[in-house]
Design a protein that fits this description.
- By secondary structure, the chain is α/β, with parallel strands linked by helices.
- It has a single domain (2-208), classed as NAD(P)-binding Rossmann-like Domain (Rossmann fold).
- The protein contains 5 helices and 10 strands, in the order E-H-E-E-H-E-H-E-H-E-E-E-E-H-E.
- Strands 3-2-1-4-5-6-10-8 form an 8-stranded mixed β-sheet, with helices on both faces. A two-stranded parallel sheet has the order 7-9.
- Helix 1 packs across helix 5 (184-193) and helix 2 (55-62) crosses helix 3 (82-97).
- The two termini are 29 Å apart.
């Protein structure tokens, strides 16, 4: 199984790469700064230096892959649409290279999941800190939904550096009581589980404790 991870040097992307390698997948890490990868040289790891906004680089990296994972992230203060524009390039390249399975991590707390947020996040944290990121994520999801690929959008709660538990809630209703937090290890575990699980094909799924 050949998989490629966009956003592989981020905190969640690193966990995804680690777990994928432990499952003996052939992993391509698409990164702007290879020095940030903590895995070092490994037999099943291919590191491709590139910019997700450069279509030709993205298309070359996606060729011959089986599944594409996206964990693109930016600082909360960033006002660009890197997630949206980068994802649009990924989707275009997947169609060109005839790769259909796409698993992308966004977030809980915007669009139809606003009701899961506690008061302080809904009226303080989101409007003043996460507004740009959520705006980008919302546009990113729209691009994915229109893609006609075999996509799954994974929406985690607040991500922590906790351990892999393998025990978490997913597919819950916006009104269900959740802790609104989950470890990056468990998010990666769930994302990789979508390789063989079609339960959430062409669906947006929340994941939290």
């Amino acid at each position: 199984m050949k998989i490629i991870v966009f956003g592989a040097t981020g905190k969640t992307g690193q966990k995804l790469v680690d777990q994928a390698l432990s499952k003996n997948y052939q992993v391509t890490a698409f990164v702007r700064t290879p020095e940030k990868l903590k895995q070092g040289e490994q037999r099943n790891l291919i590191v491709v230096k590139g910019d997700v906004l450069n279509y030709n680089q993205v298309a070359a990296a996606i060729e011959n892959q089986d599944i594409v994972f996206c964990n693109l992230g930016m600082p909360a203060s960033d006002k660009s649409y890197l997630r949206t524009d980068g994802t649009a390039n990924i989707i275009k390249a997947m169609k060109e290279k005839k790769v259909s399975r796409f698993v992308c991590q966004t977030s809980l707390g915007f669009a139809d999941t606003k009701e899961v947020l506690p008061w302080h996040m809904k009226y303080l944290i989101v409007p003043f800190i996460l507004k740009n990121a959520f705006r980008d994520h919302e546009q990113q999801e729209r691009v994915i939904e229109k893609s006609e690929l075999d996509w799954t959008i994974v929406r985690p709660g607040n991500m922590t550096n906790g351990k892999l538990t393998g025990t978490y809630k997913h597919g819950f209703e916006p009104t269900e009581k959740i802790k609104l937090k989950i470890s990056r290890n468990d998010v990666s575990h769930f994302m990789l589980d979508q390789i063989d699980n079609k339960q959430y094909l062409n669906k947006k799924v929340g994941i939290s404790y």
